[in-house]
Amino acid sequence: MPPTFAFDQPGVRIRLDELPTDPPKGTSRKEAEARLAELGEELFELQDLLWGARLHSLLVVLQGRDTAGKDGVIKTVAGYLNPRGVHVVSFGPPTQEELEHDFLWRVHRHTPRKGEVAIWNRSHYEDVLVVRVHGLTPASIWRERYGHICDFEELLAEHDTIVRKFFLHISHREQQARLLERERDPRKAWKLSVGDWREREHWDAYTEAYEEAISRCATPRAPWIVVPADAKWYRNLVVAEALVEALRPYRPVWEAHLDALGHKARAELAAYRAAARTS
Ligand code: ADP
Predict the structure, then answer these.
(1) Does 3.40.50.300 match the CATH number of domain 5-251?
(2) Which atom of ligand 1 is least distant from the CA of 71?
(3) What is the largest CA-CA distance in the chain?
(4) Which tens digit of pLDDT belongs to each residue from 77-116?
(5) CA 43 to CA 164: how far, in whole Å?
(6) Ligand 1 centre distance from Cα of residue 5 (Å)
(7) Nearest residue (CA) to ligand 1, atom 4
(8) What is the pTM of this model?
(9) Which residues' Cβ are closer than 6 Å to ligand 1?
(10) Which member of 53, 76, 120, 271 has the greatest number of CB atoms within 10 A?
(11) pLDDT for residue 3
(12) Domain locations in the chain?
């Protein structure tokens, strides 16, 4: 089982440079891939129960610097799920209409309904990340947002949403390698963006912004998981493991609920047949 760097208490100081971006020494890629396949099966089963029981929903928030692998996680981990119950939403720069609302308006409409999974590629955290780094709103405004974010996520949890937030943690060196690789590979060059290199110049400012966001908005019901993301195979394993661990405790509740529903449906059918016989 991979060690997870999960943060679920607000206010604990976080230093990203003290947290690993590499898999732990001695981790075997082959074993990790085999374990991921098992977790994928369990994830599929758990999602099926979530869907049937409709007692909870799951919100997965993916954050990370450019090239950190948000799309890769979606492809791999969401690939294990039944698409019927999954919504993937990407949050880019806000539209004029979105800017004319409070910052949570655009995300709130994409929260998952009971039985469903929502995966957010970027999120409301951009409003304390890119907005802070580039001074897109005055500090007096973004500073207030940490509290609003905690309250918002608490509200979702109150409504039986299981919330897990992932920071895909890559090193400065690995990001450079990935950006250069995109440039070299004709099949990947379409992903190139001057913006990615420009944002890289703000590496330290983003580090500070992420540290504060993770530290202030880590709560027991909406924890942050800092995922070592320099190796894609390990990154996928950590995310899958954390999701299975988040859902697994609910299995007995969902199974009991589905049994009760099955019992009721059978009783209704028996009553219907009995009535048909006597008429
Ligand atoms: P990605 O880089 O995730 O593959 P895009 O190229 O569409 O996808 O980038 C999304 C961009 O939108 C990022 O540069 C991000 O910083 C920006 N963005 C997201 N949310 C906000 C926000 N609330 N305010 C300003 N910019 C934002």
Answers:
(1) yes
(2) 4
(3) 80
(4) 999 999 999 999 999 999 999 999 999 999 999 999 999 9
(5) 14
(6) 25
(7) 66
(8) 0.96
(9) 66, 91-94, 121-122, 126-127, 130-131, 136
(10) 120
(11) 56
(12) 5-251
